[in-house]
Design brief:
The complex is a heterotrimer of chains A (281), B (283) and C (296). Helices cover 77% and strands 1% of the residues of chain A. Chain A contains 11 helices and 2 strands, in the order ααββααααααααα. The radius of gyration of chain A is 23 Å and the shape is globular. Chain A has 2 domains: 42 residues; 235 residues, MetI-like (MetI-like fold, Orthogonal Bundle), CATH 1.10.3720.10. In chain A, β1 and β2 form a beta hairpin. The termini of chain A are far apart. Chain B has one domain: MetI-like (MetI-like fold, Orthogonal Bundle). Chain C has one domain: Rossmann fold, CATH 3.40.50. The radius of gyration of chain C is 19 Å and the shape is globular. With 296 residues, chain C is α/β, with parallel strands linked by helices. In chain C, α6 crosses α8. Chain C contains 12 helices and 10 strands. In chain C, β9 and β10 form a beta hairpin. Classes of the chains: A mainly alpha (281), B mainly alpha (283), C alpha/beta (296). Chains in contact: A-B, A-C, B-C. At the A-B interface, α1, α3, α4, α5 and α6 of A face α1, α2, α4, α5 and α6 of B. Bound molecules: adenosine-5'-diphosphate and magnesium ion (MG). The site of magnesium ion has 4 residues of chain C, from α3.
């Protein structure tokens, strides 16, 4: 009898502990977001977004860093998305479990575990020096593309595998070739899931510092081509904050980053739910 | 038509091999650049050397290895109970609708850029530690807390999946016997989900040991082996990022060699994770 | 027989590639069919459409078809009857080589369609599948409009012209006795149709690629009695123009539909006879047990 009561008290206590852990975690998230927005949002004016910095960023805006971020992340996605989706299509539609598929999986899984600083080192050695692309948008984008590739492969693969086998069978049974089946019956249903993955990859790319700082450079100029160096938002933020150039502008830059990241994650969440809703028709 | 199909198939195959290709390139280039200096200094001297003094040509990275281990273990001490607690609450206790909102919120933590974590650590945590606990504030402790928070989403998300994967019958059986929820969790669910949780821990370690920008901002980065959790510390990753900007010659090679060591540690962790995921730890 | 794993890339594409030898250009379309007709018209008499010889089908080590030998005549309505797990679906999948898509499967024996072995070298698998249409057990529509479902096959065969597509879609829907019900809402999502309508849409989808043989795998298993009757009536219209193979586990349906009935059990063809004969005087005890409901 008392044992049972003890157990019940313990159950309640542990429920409280686990709830506290969750509240604390969510609280941390809210704290970080609110803290940055509170300190930084008032700095963010149209001028802050659209003007170039002066005195190394002590004054002026963050326009070149915005351009740099869009250029590097955008180009990285343009490279990684087709490669990632093609990899997923190959793994799901063109091969069963085989030595080749295991090799490909080994590659993507291990790539996913490599820290971004190693990508930075590699990008510097390979793209900047060896291929002589210099600190540039293209070097940064290629490095970032390699880094986000596993995310895109994994999410695309999940989305493609979730497409009912029946769609494929119908298509094949009508005399469609493999590629026709992929484009006609499989990919259309997988698009929302693939898009969700790409959006998440964009978020990762936008926030990345270590892989980009040694490959895209830290220049505050406005690039004229993809072979020019740029500075991305997180790199700019890092330099402002660490070198104590301007806390004010650091907070402003961080606020911009946080808002963008929030929007991207909400977008991904929305795309995913749309996907779930649509597949119930 | 058939020709086109064949071409497409080959193109897809070649594209799909790019991940393994990039992996190979990374290994080749990092090792090629990093190994000569290790051979020159001698691998034992490099790994076990306690002095890092690039201007004098002395390259010992033991302080950084120890530093990485300290902060990674610290991150686990902070992140594991919190992350596992979250996972248990979300998987087993929270109403389904609350879980639908809370889990993405926890995962949103993974979306926040590491420089932002570092910055918050710098402006909030470091002064707090300095004022309340003493020392410079830039410390093992500050790094461990920041990293612990950063690995929360990894640990929560993977443990959550592991808990959810436990067959419902186990749960129902226990509850039908009159066990409380906590008894069910402790006696059935956690043991059954153990391989997944261990994998979560290993992956969390991988994230912590590989994190760079956040640690740089709160660790203090002194190249000495820390003797207390309030002492400053430099990790392998910070060592690379701090000095890459200006290093040349042997010094630069030594940074790539630091990368090699980091890479090897990560590879071992990955192997462990795979091994665990294959279910070989359950017994 | 070794476990020859048919990887999709090889089974479909590689063999198909050989057929290309010596064929300059790869004009899409009818290359395969002319091949199939042109090549050696073995022993088969002209009114035999499909000739199955010692066909064995394996899922890994599991032998799902244990040496089937059977002929199917042109414009015949053949019913394959048998309990679940007897290999009916597997037989259909091996006739249009849909089984190639499943990992770890292998085949031995021969299937001659118009005298040409469909597992032989130089077969255009996609073209073979077009000629041998298949309707699946559960009605499944592609997640697109009614029109696009029917136009799916023709479009993949390169038909782009709107007027022609319109005509094909209308004809196929008429032939599947669905036109009157959907002609005003061709742009609606096909998922809004009822189960019976979806199944007739599946049939229209197959008819739109002008097959020679139509195989229906338990097409009424998910349908109400009225929808079932409509499909059964439809079968009699189809058999005027196509060779029709119906799969059912239901002896009553086999009896209603008429034609020849082939009774399958555990991957074997137990016996085959006209419906009138098999239901009144089955030769094999197992057939008798099945149709009298002793098992299955
Ligand atoms: N994809 C598959 N993988 C492995 N075995 C299968 C597969 N499909 C069918 N089988 C097996 O093959 C045998 C015949 O199945 P099937 O042809 O589906 O029978 P039916 O259509 O008469 O119900 C059964 O024993 C079944 O379990
Ligand atoms: Mg079946």
């Amino acid at each position: 009898m008392t044992r049972k009561r003890d157990e019940r008290a313990r159950d309640r206590a542990m429920t409280g502990v686990f709830m506290a852990a969750t509240v604390l975690t969510i609280g941390l998230l809210v704290y970080i977001v609110v803290y940055i927005l509170q300190k930084g949002l008032h700095v963010v004016t149209p001028a802050f977004l659209l003007e170039s910095p002066t005195e190394m960023g002590r004054a002026g805006g963050i326009y070149p860093a915005i351009i740099g971020t869009i250029a590097v992340t955008g180009l990285a996605i343009l490279i990684a998305a087709p490669v990632g989706v093609a990899t997923a299509v190959f793994l799901t539609e063109y091969t069963h479990e085989s030595a080749v598929s295991r090799l490909i999986r080994f590659g993507t899984e291990n790539l996913a575990g490599i820290p971004s600083i190693i990508f930075g080192l590699f990008g510097f050695l390979f793209f900047v020096i060896y291929l002589d692309l210099g600190w540039s948008i293209i070097s940064g984008a290629l490095t970032l593309a390699a880094m986000i590739l596993p995310t895109i492969v994994r999410t695309s693969e999940e989305a493609i595998r979730a497409v009912p086998t029946a769609y494929r069978e119908i298509s094949y049974a009508l005399g469609s070739t493999r590629w026709q089946t992929v484009t006609g019956a499989v990919l259309p249903s997988a698009v929302p899931g693939i898009v969700t993955g790409i959006i998440l990859a964009v978020g990762r790319g936008i926030g990345e510092t270590a892989a980009v700082i040694f490959t895209a450079g830290a220049s505050l100029g406005i690039p004229a081509s993809i072979f020019d160096p740029v500075r991305t938002l997180p790199v700019h933020f890092y330099i402002l904050a660490r070198e104590g150039i301007s806390m004010e502008n650091a907070y402003g830059t961080a606020a911009v980053l946080i808002v963008v990241i929030l929007l991207i994650n909400i977008g991904a969440y929305w795309a995913m739910n749309r996907f779930a809703a649509k597949s119930n028709v | 038509m058939r020709f086109k199909e064949k071409v497409i198939e080959k193109l897809l195959l070649v594209t799909a091999l790019s991940a393994i290709g990039v992996l190979a390139l990374i290994i080749i280039f990092i090792f090629k650049e990093g190994s000569p200096i290790m051979v020159k200094v001698g691998i034992p001297h490099f790994i076990l050397g306690e002095k890092w003094s690039p201007s004098k040509g002395i390259f010992g990275i033991l302080p950084m290895i120890v530093g990485s281990i300290w902060v990674t273990v610290g991150a686990l001490v902070v992140g594991l109970p919190l992350g596992l607690g979250c996972a248990i609450f979300l998987a087993e206790m929270a109403p389904a609708r609350a879980g639908m909102v809370l889990k993405p919120a926890v995962e949103l933590l993974a979306g926040i850029p590491s420089v932002v974590y570092g910055f918050i650590g710098l402006v909030v945590l470091v002064p707090f530690i300095r004022n309340v606990l003493g020392g410079p504030g830039f410390s093992v402790l500050a790094s461990a807390i920041v990293l612990g928070i950063m690995i929360l989403p990894t640990i929560t998300s993977i443990s959550f999946d592991a808990l959810k994967a436990v067959p419902k019958a186990y749960r129902d059986g226990m509850l039908a016997l009159g066990a409380t929820r906590w008894q069910t969790i402790r006696m059935v669910l956690l043991p059954a989900a153990k391989p997944g949780i261990v994998a979560a821990v290993i992956l969390g370690m991988g994230r912590a040991i590989g994190e760079t920008m956040a640690v740089i901002m709160v660790a203090g980065n002194a190249t000495i082996i820390p003797t207390s959790i309030l002492a400053p510390v430099r990790t392998l990753t910070s060592n690379i990022a701090l000095e890459m900007g200006y290093a040349a010659g042997d010094h630069r090679q030594a940074l790539f060699a630091t990368g090699v060591i980091l890479f090897v540690i990560i590879a071992i962790l990955n192997l462990l994770a795979r091994w665990v995921a294959a279910g070989r730890v359950s017994e | 027989m070794g476990n020859k794993v048919i990887s999709p890339g090889e089974a479909g594409v590689a063999q198909a590639g050989q057929a290309q030898d010596g064929q300059p250009g790869f004009s899409r379309g009818m290359v395969g069919i002319s091949n199939a007709r042109g090549a050696g018209t073995n022993q088969a008499p002209p009114d035999i459409k499909v000739s199955i010889r010692e066909l064995r089908f394996y899922y890994g080590k599991l032998e799902a078809l244990k040496g089937i030998t059977m002929d199917i005549r042109k414009n015949e309505l053949l019913t394959i009857m048998g309990p679940s797990g007897s290999g009916k679906t597997t037989l259909l999948r091996s006739l249009n080589r849909l089984g190639d898509l499943i990992a770890g499967t292998s085949v031995s024996g021969q299937v001659l369609v118009d005298g040409k072995d469909i597992y032989g070298p130089g077969v255009d698998v996609a073209e073979l599948r077009r000629r041998i249409g298949m309707v699946f057990a559960l009605p499944v529509v592609l997640p697109m409009s009614i029109y696009d479902n029917v136009a799916y096959g023709p479009r993949k065969r390169g038909i782009k012209r709107r007027a022609l597509l319109d005509e094909i879609v209308e004809q196929a829907l008429r032939a599947a006795i669905l036109w009157d019900e959907v002609k005003d809402r061709l742009r609606d999502h096909a998922g809004r149709l009822s189960g019976g309508q979806q199944q007739r849409l599946s049939i229209a989808r197959v008819l739109a690629v002008q097959p020679e043989i139509i195989m229906l795998d338990e097409p009424t298993s998910g349908l109400d009695p009225i929808s079932t009757l409509r499909i059964e009536e439809l079968l009699h219209e189809l058999v005027e123009r196509y060779t029709v193979i119906l799969v059912t586990h239901n002896p009553l349906q086999a009896a209603r539909v008429g034609g020849d009935v082939a009774f399958f059990l555990l991957g074997e063809l137990v016996e085959r006879a006209p419906a009138g004969v098999i239901f009144t005087s089955p030769r094999d005890k197992r057939t008798e047990d099945y149709i009298t409901g002793k098992f299955g």
